[in-house]
Amino acid sequence: MKTQSLSELVEKHADDALFQRLTWHLLPVLFVSYVVAYIDRVNVGFAKLQMLDDLHFSASVYGLGSGIFFLGFLLFEIPSNLILYRVGARPWLTRIMLTWGIISVLTMFVRTPNQFYIARFLLGVAEAGFLPGVVYYLSQWFPQDRQGRVISMLVTAAALGGVLVGPLSGWIMSYFSDSERLHNWQWLFLLQGIPALMVALVLWVTLPDSPTNVRWLSSEEKKRLVSLVGDAQRHLPRKDKIREVLFESNVWLLALTLLAVNLGIYAVIFWTPTIIRDAGVSSLSNIGYISAFPYVGSALAMLLLGRSSDYFEERRWHIAVTCVVGALGLVLTTIANGPEIRIAGVIVATSAFIGSTPLVWAMSGNFMSGRAAATGLALINAVAALGGLVGPYVMGIAKDLTGSTTSAVLAIAAIAMMGSFCVLKLPATGKHS
């Protein structure tokens, strides 16, 4: 084991203090933004419990509407991130939040399947580029050996959003049951869309554009930060040109890995309230509370996997194992006899798949930098968005045709297992590979 000198220990302590300050200055507003984004993305799963009956939508209509959100992602991820690279994170992330808040609120007025599809598609267009944009932004502030923890903390917001959206949606739909000429699902979209508009203002006021123009860092700290991030990037093999990234096999392997993970995630989360109701829980409030448990597990999984992968300087096997565990959780939701075991399967699948997501993002920095990184991150998320598009729609079709989602879940579990093979094809050489 290498013995560190006193000067090295002092320097490490100063670096730890610096990055702790960065975390406290940057993460809170980005974290809250992602919580709000996740709630607005998945609250349709709770609206479904009453919305389908009121509007006479079939399960296929719901499945397509839920998933078409990701078509907007697929088409606009790369353009969005290129614009962010050009104009800066603060104005572009603020624009993203404002537009998705407005569209989320307007979803309360849908009356036909086509209006539902359009609203969900535009919500995906509005939110496109948010997560990869934030990941790219954080890569300008944190070197590779610290990104696993930071991105895990950020993506834990998805788990917190999942924890909050269940009880909050259950309460809204119970308390505002057809009051003031609005249905309870309309109140849901209204009250959960407004916070995005409020957080957008906070984002505009508080988020710094780059390490060089912040007042709460000294000139010495700015130089040290630029040096640490720059040195970490120079020591990693990567592609810098956009064309090279588009033809980089490792980037596509990461994209396919995240596609498999997203299939597992969105095959479950848009249907979790329905799975819980079918297990015998009738109260909307109780469905909301129970649906929070998978996200509690996801938060724990993300934090543990993030720290473990940073400590062991290893990502591939962490991701591969969670893909297998998540697939087994999906299988449990279909083959188990007891409702408690089915709900346990949902918890295992959601925790494993969401828990591995930050590690995929942390690995992406191994292969690209600069403007190409903005493109590559968007490419990965765009390909992965297919999982969100296909998963819910396939579940809806299976439900309409067979009366059960079993066949769709088993097929998605098999595809999710392939994520472990994709990630293990990535090179094992180099730090954090």
Describe this structure in words.
This is Sugar phosphate permease. Its main location: membrane. Residues 26-431 form the Major facilitator superfamily (MFS) profile domain. With 433 residues, the chain is mostly helical. It has one domain (26-202, 222-424): Growth Hormone, Chain: A. 81% of the residues lie in helices and 0% in strands. The chain has 18 helices and no strands. The protein has helices at residues 6-42, 44-55, 59-87, 89-106, 113-127, 130-139, 144-175, 184-206, 219-234, 242-246, 249-269, 272-278, 284-290, 293-312, 316-335, 339-364, 370-402, 406-424. α2 (44-55) packs antiparallel against α8 (184-206) and α14 packs parallel to α16. It is globular and about 65 Å long. The model is unreliable at 429-433 (pLDDT under 50).
Attribute tags:
Growth Hormone, Chain: A, 0% strand, disordered C terminus
Secondary structure elements and pairings:
Blueprint (H helix, E strand, L loop, with lengths): L5 H37 L1 H12 L3 H29 L1 H18 L6 H15 L2 H10 L4 H32 L8 H23 L12 H16 L7 H5 L2 H21 L2 H7 L5 H7 L2 H20 L3 H20 L3 H26 L5 H33 L3 H19 L9
Helix pairs in contact: 1-7, 1-8, 2-8, 3-4, 3-5, 3-17, 4-5, 4-8, 6-17, 7-8, 7-13, 7-14, 7-16, 11-15, 11-16, 11-17, 11-18, 12-16, 14-16, 15-16, 15-18, 17-18
Membrane topology: Multi-pass membrane protein
Protein name: Sugar phosphate permease
Subcellular location: Membrane
